[in-house]
Amino acid sequence: xxxxxxxxxxxxxxxxxxxxxxxxxxxxxxxxxxxxxxxxxxxxxxxxxxxxxxxxxxxxxxxxxxxxxxxxxxxxxxxxxxxxxxxxxxxxxxxxxxxxxxxxxxxxxxxxxxxxxxxxxxxxxxxxxxxxxxxxxxxxxxxxxxxxxxxxxxxxxxxxxxxxxxxxxxxxxxxxxxxx
Length: 180
Fold this sequence. Notes:
Helices cover 40% and strands 23% of the residues. The chain has helices at residues 98-107, 110-135, 138-148, 150-155, 158-165, 169-179, and strands at 25-29, 39-45, 48-54, 61-68, 73-76, 84-87, 91-97. It has a four-stranded antiparallel sheet with strand order 1-7-2-5. Strands 4-3-6 form a three-stranded antiparallel sheet. Strand 3 (48-54) and strand 4 form a beta hairpin.
């Protein structure tokens, strides 16, 4: 039986002996796996994207909003039902129901620290992304990713990367040609 790579999640400041680790169940997933509602996930291996379906035109299009890499936490909440969480490749995650998470907050005050840490990181990332989108051209966004998040360029397929910065794959190809 596999166990959680606790070093990968050391930024959560949860002790190795904490019983919270035992509450997570292993999930092996393949490419194009959709993640279940009302659960929190610790991503140990693989790459997951969060996207929305834009149905405003004749053709539905996917708009990538976030990417999750090993060591990340993400939650799939029914209230955010428009969002789809899908794996880009195969990997492993550890899941727990959101109800179990709520129960842990009552029993273990240290879990509140993890919740606050997670929520503050999520809020900061959303605010930063919003400012990047509002203040920059797609080329500036691509250059920002090259400089500050090269793992995005290296690991995310170009069609998803194009959606993330708000252009078509052809436009992203032109941007890449100008830069390289």
